[in-house]
Specification:
With 295 residues, the protein is an alpha+beta fold. It contains six helices and 17 strands.
Length: 295
């Protein structure tokens, strides 16, 4: 749920207060991707569980496909808003429960689990923790097979860049979010991005997000930042084969000790953190250098 103007530091990582939910609803890329993915994945009569439902829009998309939906939300004002809006939009097709997605267990089997507790890099929010815990509870108390998950998979990439952190003569290297569809005149791409992590939510989930990548510089630059790219495969499609994807806002994070490179030089990027960690866990361990001279 990364957004350019949410001050995450004021709230717990897994809470998006009501005043910020409109930012999610007005994000047309996100809304279009989820609407399409849910239309592909949900059929009439399916039992759908929405973990961390927010204002309930994903539950609404599932209900209008003919599913019976249970929506779980723990923030009181967001829960009350979702209950009112879903009742008006779907009648009794969606049951909204004031509960915590981190320990909720349905009464019986479900066909599909929606869960969008996502931040670029899998930082801050509890997507992996929530789904991992749900899978363990489900298999222990209900049994297999597991339901389908939406998103179905995650692909993460990293890219060395030279970022202009100077604003009206004032230089301050701080993390920056970028819209993928917009030109970024402050960013020089030193080399193409490389994938450092990919997984399906139905499979064992990662305990770490770690990269040790070597890039070849395509131009002279000061590598002073790394750009993270997180693409969510919301739903796999089979006719034609493919997927409905949602690429989140990019995250550019500064490197404490930048390195100069020339065209053709190799540059090595290393970092490691746990899913759900705060951004400083990434920046604090981020290292860059040329082979044999990594800081």
């Amino acid at each position: 749920m990364d957004r350019l103007d949410i001050d995450h530091t004021r709230f717990p990582a897994d809470v998006i207060p009501l005043q910020y939910q409109a930012l999610l609803l007005t994000d047309e890329r996100r809304m279009s991707a989820f609407a399409e993915a849910i239309a592909q994945a949900v059929a009439p009569g399916m039992r759908v569980l929405d973990l961390g439902a927010g204002t309930g829009v994903l539950s609404y998309f599932a209900a209008r496909q003919g599913a019976t939906v249970t929506a779980i939300e723990r923030e009181p004002r967001v829960f009350a808003t979702a209950r009112t809006a879903l009742r008006a939009a779907t009648g009794d097709a969606v049951r909204v429960l004031h509960a915590d997605a981190r320990d909720y267990l349905p009464d019986g089997p479900v066909d599909l689990v929606l869960c969008e507790m996502l931040h670029v890099g899998l930082l801050r929010e509890r997507q992996v923790e929530v789904i991992d815990g749900f899978k363990r509870r489900y298999l222990r108390h209900i049994g297999g097979p597991l339901p389908r998950f939406l998103p179905e998979a995650c692909v993460q990439a990293a890219q060395p860049v030279e970022q202009d952190f100077t604003y009206r003569g004032y230089t301050v290297p701080v993390p920056v979010f970028q819209l993928p569809e917009c030109a970024q005149p402050r960013t020089v791409e030193v080399a193409p991005p490389q994938v450092f992590q990919h997984f399906f939510y139905c499979d064992p989930l990662p305990a770490r997000c770690a990269a040790d990548l070597t890039f070849v510089a395509e131009r002279p630059a000061l590598v002073n930042a790394v750009r993270l790219v997180t693409k969510n495969l919301l739903a796999l499609t089979y006719d034609p084969p493919g997927s409905v994807d949602w690429t989140m806002n990019y995250l550019v994070v500064p490197i404490a000790e930048p390195v100069e490179v020339r065209t053709g030089d190799e540059v090595r990027i290393r970092f490691e953190y746990a899913p759900g960690d705060e951004i400083p866990a990434l920046t604090g361990g981020l290292r860059a250098g040329v082979p044999g001279h990594v800081h």
